[in-house]
């Protein structure tokens, strides 16, 4: 069984759940909802952020800006160009996710485009014409069903 990195308790669980419902909720409102002292809530939120257990961030909905053409692309990137290619991907406004991979593909990226033609050109021209980069496979994503911003740990992950 995998060991948890940090130890969090049921109060942390309740705070996380309240923030999940409303990330803009005040410490005072959370304290009332979970029946805990407001200072405790503030301190716990600070600790959760400091330990990187949570990030308070704005989640942008790409489709509201017209980015409806989505592709997950698995790539084989040669070691000598890997770091530079990752940096280029980070700067590319169409790339929204980058991860290491194991197996034939050593890099996975999620991309979003304004239209299918842009996506087609990126997959069939831009990437194949990039030295040291091979498209292993890709998936056109017509609809995302469940995303990271909807995930929560389960209560049993927290000690009593």
UniProtKB/TrEMBL annotation:
InterPro entries from the UniProt entry: AsnC-type_HTH_dom (IPR000485), Dimeric_a/b-barrel (IPR011008), Tscrpt_reg_AsnC-like (IPR019888), WH-like_DNA-bd_sf (IPR036388), WH_DNA-bd_sf (IPR036390)
Pfam families membership: HTH_AsnC-type
Example of a GO MF term: sequence-specific DNA binding
Keyword Calcium: no
SMART domains according to UniProt: HTH_ASNC
One Gene Ontology cellular component annotation held by this UniProt entry: cytosol
Keyword DNA-binding part of the UniProt annotation: yes
Keywords annotated in UniProt: DNA-binding, Transcription, Transcription regulation
PANTHER family referenced in this protein's UniProt entry, alphabetically: LEUCINE-RESPONSIVE REGULATORY PROTEIN (PTHR30154), TRANSCRIPTIONAL REGULATOR AZLB (PTHR30154:SF34)
Name of the protein in question: Lrp/AsnC family transcriptional regulator, regulator for asnA, asnC and gidA
